[in-house]
Specification:
4 copies of one chain form a homotetramer. Chain A is α+β, with helices and mostly antiparallel strands and 392 residues long. In chain A, 30% of the residues lie in helices and 12% in strands. Chain A has 9 helices and 12 strands. Chain A has helices at residues 7-26, 37-40, 65-85, 90-119, 157-160, 188-196, 208-216, 254-263, 271-279; strands spanning 143-146, 149-153, 172-176, 179-182, 225-227, 232-236, 239-242, 318-324, 350-353, 370-372, 381-382, 386-388. In chain A, the strands form 4 sheets. Chain A has a 4-stranded mixed beta sheet. Chain A has a 3-stranded antiparallel beta sheet with strand order 1-4-12, covered by helices on one side. A 3-stranded antiparallel beta sheet of chain A has the order 5-6-7, with no helix packed on it. In chain A, a hairpin with a 4-residue loop joins strand 5 (225-227) and strand 6. In chain A, helix 1 packs parallel to helix 3 (65-85). Chain A is globular and about 65 Å long. Chains in contact: A-B, A-D, B-C, C-D. Chain C binds chain D through residues 44, 46-47, 150, 172-175, 177, 203-204, 206-211, 267, 322-324, 326-327, 329-330, 340, 344-348, 374, 388, and chain D through 44, 46-47, 150, 172-175, 177, 203-204, 206-211, 267, 322-324, 326-327, 329-330, 340, 344-348, 374, 388.
Chain lengths: 392, 392, 392, 392
């Protein structure tokens, strides 16, 4: 699949970021580890010059993994030297911090890309072996009322930590009508009801472009689902397992999430609604969230909860919103090549919120915006329902 | 091009709408004019059953034009009979009105599709011959300050006439930050400055997907522009003419409009900003606008104006906004097959506002939302700049 | 389909040939009827300059049919004048004769392209209405022994008439091993046996490329065959009719012909074998052959025959051979643009022999070579079996 | 490129052949090394069941190389045991011999696929480092007269060794007209003359399909040629080097070979002509031919020769012929799955003769037929000219 990259490429690219945007700027007598790497491991920065074509990343047999590891060690050592020398330079600090968050993003992609690659391998290999996860029923979905009104949307240094990407800025007033918000994501069991009700065979449930997508590949289930003749099964990073009805549904495209919501008589939330709800959580993005560090590497059923607030807002599955990925009012990309990071992708992509079970802990926050095209499935992407408040 | 349809198909499809959604529901002893037409002239209504594939419309040699004209006359006569009988039925009234507005939409498509077809014909045929249009300089662009704040967005029966499409509803409060709005659309002359400054060769001016679009087809000018070795020329419905620097630029894709705006240090307006500005006009959508009925069938330079309000908001060129085509809060599609009219296309399309020189007079209003994918060029699509208000 | 052209285009192109290759060379003060037609109606002659792209022929709304008819009348009149003046010029005579044979080829394409266009029209229109054809059983297939040995292959002015295309020359000695040749083409009934025996579902019967072709479009029957729930039916120029088991099977691709032959324990003949057999007929290409002039416009069951020689060698269906379309030893294309007629297509095409029910009478001969890519189906293409002679 | 495979896949596939066609048939209590390998390393044998899709071979990260090596060792050991036990079984002997020749074929593909992969790597890695090769001028091309007439074509156990593939059989009489045959392959220097004369820009030199191929990818030189601003250079298995004018030209498609021959006023030989010439060599396929075992892994200039017979018929470059890859008269594929080896590819491919610098010594013979589609370039494919004998 052209959207995925080999593990070796990810490893080298993360290091390339530090070499290109830090070492090259701050080191005296900078010399590249290997001049060819500048082209080979550039992802999409036009400003940096020529790039190796993305779909050909899989063809790169050299440098071998050993050489990439030497590259990483070399750059790490040089970074360590710079870190002590430049500690007081705010611009240095800013780009190093950006590089660390960039590395976290690729840590997630590493996992989703490996999962995708193993899926095409008839060996049915597992990346890790910690399954099974005890079955827990999350109980019925609750609808939580949200008052809406004016609220401040976007990155907020007081509550969101010390770093954000440029696409989360500037914070700005936003107006919301009253809405209702689901207490938890949609589960496998609920999604199977949609399938049993002919969900993949009823054009009236789908966007026009989504229906074309269903027909073109004759889709009848989410990515990684298959049927062994007896039961539905799911390819996971822990191997091939039966589908657990209580686990949040994942590897859904935007099209599937949108069709499910229409079938359920609801809709996807806007990203403003999602952020509004996230900002009112008593414990945002903390506690025992199911991030990559926990090691499950798969969404889990939510722990029983008494609270009348949404659960699983962070971790488990990224949640599709109905919002296109657009600039905030007053948005300015960063100057220079690092400004190519976010703004230029603001077309035909939809925003997902909240991170997933493959996201490093500490990487996301209430203002964090992830984005993918509507047919992307290989991320841990699920959905949470919303609906307009009933008229009083 | 798969997006365009033959004239004969448009003529039959407009009549098909009345036969299928009116005659079939209201006529006693309804019998179709020809059962095969139900499939042949269905555009995209899944609820109505099987459709003839869109890209094959050009292959339909039968029915011949004469037969299509008989079809139109037959349905027109039967509609006339129903009109007197069912005049007091509000549901009847509603679907007939929808059919009339549907017909107006296809009147515009008829013109843009004919223009596109003639472009591929080395005969350089003209659809009409009323050129040349006297050259008038529109004067420099003015920036008009707009205060923003809360305003009511969407169809308003008091000011917007007696009809609207479902995608203009419901009206709802929307919040805007202060912004500045260009007094008129971008002209050919201004767009040529962008080209002369390397606009089509500088990736930093384009969205990533837009740059791919430029490279894939090696684009260096808007659609219908060519160069005869001496000067730039433009294919129009009035024949092949030199590019007039004072005319609004048109046949731009969203990608081109967006790149121009970035080059100009500005941005595209949101559709809320556009509607906010349109609602404050002293004479919205009236007077001497350049709609299809005027016969120019090409955008014209604006008449000199003393007013400090935007000109050419209606007619001349549809104006790209930066807003994706999404449902309004609380949006509900119409029930039944006519509900397939709008909602299911809400993906990967951008909103254009204000109608064009090919739009029938009386068809558009301040709340009217047109939408096309970001690479569409064959409509009379241009742009108007906006920018954030300077900090006080 | 990109291989077919509109009727209007064929009409104009046949005239274009005479205007370009005759009038332009021989008329004093030659002036083109319309300079744009030179591009518009050039099929593939690189030497003549720019061409209008083939897949866009269907987009040409102008010139209208009336104008094309005026074009034909005009060129016909000027040709008539030249014919009396240049009658004694052998070069003139040669190119006019070539133009006439070229026109005959397009007469056949006119019919096959119309048939293809009507197939995509849900109106089920018929081109002509002379059906039904009386059912006649052709009796079982006979195997006729052919001795082979050395024979002279290629155009022979003594027996093949006064004209040939360059690809039939030079005649040359060819050696054949003994073989057996089927007395008649394969019939619909026989082909249905192949289908009933799983023919379209058994990869071992197909060439690798043919199997890919079957799978890509999920083919299960010849082109123009369908099933109305009760019986197999066939789209013909005479309308939609049931499949007659005694009629030669047609609209087969090379892949289908080759797979059928393998299933039948036989093979396709080489073009040398076909020509060898045709040269030994007592009445080659004369008598009551089913050519276009007969008006059936569909293959017919053979009349009962006592003779121990093959029937239906000419007319009815063009017969696929196993021979690639290659140059004969010593082949030289004609000089100039008309030399582009044949030679440059000698790649990835297979030879068919004998003409069809859509071929003008008098157009084909024993040395005539028709050629199409292996997936082409829209010609009246069938097959006749051959096999190696049993060892003595 | 979909035609190439990873090294790891080749290594496993060669072993898979022995496991599937030998061990599974002859071992008592056969158990597969790993059942998944049956699918994973099947190339194209439909009879063996499901296959892993070819373009996805590059995605297989598991089994890792170590596991593949264990697979090879395991099967080698089991083969050794069988070899002593079944030595007297002719059927066993036959399939093992086939497996050895199959392995030789993949040894060549291993090299050409590695070369292709390194070409896409901006690291400019070399597979081996034995360059430079001393420059030797081969002297002018000589035309050698061949009398033609009847000769016996195809595998001949007396002269061609103890093994052949089924497509070389049965031997059969073939008739040739007198022809002339070039003393050596076309060189880089000669091919550069073709380029300098506008070879890639003159449609009249190309087959129609070849010209489309040139235009589609804007080709202006053979594969692996580039220009560093100062001189023409060539990617080789020995690294990136300047183009040597005396070396045989290689990595030509059939289209390029055919166009060159037309430009040179000659043509490609038929495969019968090539074999006729090869059978008359005094030292066929022996002596100091440049096969893979010599280690150059690139074509070399011919050593000076006094003989009036063609040089470099074997090794250096495979030579395109004008002959399609078709069955010989009386051809029968082997029974069972191994019969899928050759016959089913007999469509839209052209024959090459003589092996190359990447072919294992001892693998080819005068009757050996290699075949590729006309656009294939990644083999060491060149050409030798032929022409019709001048009339006496």
């Amino acid at each position: 699949m052209p959207d995925t990259s080999p593990t070796k490429w990810h490893l080298a690219h993360m290091t390339w970021f530090f070499e290109t945007f830090v070492l090259e700027q701050y080191e005296h007598n900078f010399k590249p580890f290997d001049p060819a790497f500048r082209v080979l491991f550039n992802s999409y920065y036009q400003d940096i010059g020529e790039r190796h074509p993305r779909p050909q990343r899989g063809l790169i047999t050299r440098p071998a993994l050993d050489e990439v590891r030497r590259y990483r060690t070399n750059v790490d050592e040089r970074m360590a030297a710079l870190l002590s020398r430049c500690a007081d330079d705010p611009a240095f600090d800013e780009v190093v911090t950006l590089g660390l968050h960039h590395e976290q993003q690729h840590q997630e992609l590493l996992l989703t890309d490996i999962k995708h690659l193993l899926w095409f391998n008839p060996m049915h290999a597992a990346y890790a072996k910690r399954w099974p996860i005890g079955a827990v029923s999350p109980g019925p979905l609750q609808w939580l009322a949200c008052a809406g009104g004016m609220f401040e949307m976007g990155y907020d240094a007081t509550h969101d930590g010390t770093f954000c990407f440029d696409n989360e800025t500037p914070s700005h007033p936003s107006y919301l009508q009253p809405f209702e918000f689901a207490s938890r994501p949609v589960t496998n069991g609920e999604f199977e009801n949609f399938m049993a009700d002919g969900g993949y065979h009823r054009p009236e449930l789908w966007l026009s472009m989504g229906w074309d997508w269903v027909c073109a590949a004759q889709r009848t289930a989410p990515l990684y689902w298959h049927h062994d003749g007896k039961q539905r099964r799911q390819h996971t990073l822990q191997g091939d397992v039966g589908t657990d009805p209580h686990t949040p549904a994942c590897h859904l495209s935007f099209f599937e999430a949108d069709a499910y919501a229409r079938w359920a008589g609801a809709r996807l939330p806007t990203e403003a609604e999602w952020e509004f709800a996230a900002r009112r959580l008593r414990q945002p993005a903390r506690g025992q969230h199911n991030f990559a560090d926990r090691g499950a590497l798969h969404p889990l059923p939510p722990a029983p909860s008494e609270a009348d607030e949404p659960v699983q807002m962070f971790g488990d599955v990224r949640e599709w919103t109905q919002s296109n990925y657009n600039p905030y009012p007053g948005y300015q990309p960063l100057p220079g090549a690092v400004g190519e990071y976010n703004g230029k992708f603001m077309c035909n992509q939809f925003v997902l919120r909240g991170g997933s079970c493959a996201t490093p802990a500490g990487h996301v926050r209430a203002s964090y915006r992830n984005f993918f095209p509507p047919d992307a499935q290989w991320q841990f992407s699920g959905l949470r329902l919303a609906r307009d408040a009933a008229s009083p």
